[in-house]
Amino acid sequence: MATFTPAELAYLDVEPGERRLGRLATITRDGRPHLVPLGWYYNAELGTIDISGRDFAATRKFRNVRHNPNVAFVVDDVLPPWRPRCVTIQGRAEAIDAPATGGEALIRITPETITSWGLDEGEQR
């Protein structure tokens, strides 16, 4: 399992009320990529990216992960005037059913490779 640098963790740590979109790439049963923007959160306890939502177990991305756990995930933005920033994660995902006590199903991504740039002046991984 790859671990995040302090700069990557700072970038992934969003202020309360702020949301940053990520993009999740999964693989369909016929081997085609499926890419979707979505909400996410960093699970500090496990060092994973967790993704969930309404009726999540019924989504194509959830089914894709059940079939093939290899995924890519990216969070990025651009600061003015032109300073792109990005954290890209490649790893294995787990499709976790909703708990019997309530709540939603989720996809949990365990990073195997992390690449980032633009987080600190001159820093790139």
Could you write a compact summary of the structure shown?
GO terms for molecular function: coenzyme F420 binding; oxidoreductase activity, acting on the CH-CH group of donors. The protein has 125 residues and is mostly beta strands.
Note down, in words, how this protein is organized.
This is Pyridoxamine 5'-phosphate oxidase family protein. One of its GO terms (molecular function) is coenzyme F420 binding. InterPro entries: F420H2_bilvrd_red/Heme_oxyg, MSMEG_5819/OxyR, Pyridox_Oxase_N, Split_barrel_FMN-bd. The two termini are 16 Å apart. Strands 2-1-5-6-7-4-3 form a seven-stranded antiparallel beta sheet, with helices on both faces. The protein has a domain at 1-14 and 22-73 and 101-108: Roll (Pnp Oxidase, Chain A). The longest helix has 8 residues, at 60-67. The model has no long low-confidence stretch (mean pLDDT 92). The protein is mainly beta. The chain has helices spanning 6-12, 60-67, and strands at residues 22-27, 33-38, 41-43, 48-52, 70-79, 83-96, 106-117.
